[in-house]
Design brief:
This protein has about 190 residues and is mainly beta. It has one domain: Pnp Oxidase, Chain A (Roll), CATH 2.30.110.10. Helix content is about 10%, strand content about 35%. The strands form three sheets. Strands 1, 2, 3, 4, 5, 6, 9 and 10 form an eight-stranded antiparallel beta sheet that branches. Strands 7-8 form a two-stranded antiparallel ribbon. Strands 11-12 form a two-stranded antiparallel ribbon. Bound molecules: flavin mononucleotide. The site of flavin mononucleotide (FMN) has 22 residues, from strand 3, strand 5 and helix 1.
């Protein structure tokens, strides 16, 4: 895949339509991947996103200890692997090995990127809040990259297998079908 670096300021747009993600984490030799859909932009300046991770997961332990993680955006072709990564724990399974997903080198953080994914956000944790059973890891996007055919400054929705994958719940997933252009004044925040 021919990925190019994109402005970090555009990084939040990779999350704009709520794709499901594969979050990679690493601490002292342990590399892991989990599915995550509870992710949201938090701030434009500084560039912050929030990732909600259940306290019982291995990912929670690794992210808490290392203060970093990477977000990878899968496509429809990775639906089965995504469900698998969200169904079993890295405490019991080497999910990167079992899925056969290929690792790609990160630019700033230590967790690997997943080569088959269309986009990546490398994130450094700046704050943690645990209001319930999930911790919200608030993190700065320190590097962002995306497949050129998939995202220019927004998702392009060209070929089906270059679109982000969405999780509807349970075993249901979806892809966006059509891009519509709004004929209206541009708001301050888009
Ligand atoms: C589509 C999908 C989305 C998920 N989103 C989240 C999420 O946002 N946060 C979370 O804590 N768990 C989420 N999960 C569940 C975790 O991926 C699951 O608990 C996983 O086994 C944790 O793996 P780990 O112990 O290796 O970190 C999701 C599962 C699926 C299938």
């Amino acid at each position: 895949m021919a990925k190019r670096e994109i402005p970090r300021e555009q990084g939040y747009r990779l999350l704009a339509c709520g794709p499901v993600t594969l979050v990679t984490s690493y601490y002292k030799g342990d590399m892991n991947v989990m599915a995550a859909s509870w992710i949201t932009p938090v701030s434009a300046r500084p560039i912050l996103i929030g990732l909600c991770v259940h306290e019982a997961t291995l990912s929670h332990e690794l992210i808490k200890k290392s203060s970093e993680f990477a977000i990878n955006i899968p496509t429809i072709e990775l639906m089965r692997q995504t469900r698998y990564c969200g169904s079993v724990s890295g405490r019991d399974h080497n999910k990167l090995k079992v899925t056969g997903l290929h690792e790609a080198g990160p630019h700033v953080v230590r967790p690997v990127l997943i080569e088959e994914c269309i986009a990546h956000l490398e994130c450094a944790v700046v704050e943690m809040v645990t209001p319930g059973d999930h911790t919200i890891f608030i993190a700065e996007i320190v590097h962002a990259s995306a497949e050129e055919e998939s995202f220019d400054s927004v998702y392009l929705l060209k070929e089906r297998d270059l679109r982000p994958l969405h999780h509807l719940g349970a075993d249901r997933f979806a892809v966006l079908e059509e891009q519509l252009i709004a004929d209206a004044p541009t708001p301050e925040r888009d």
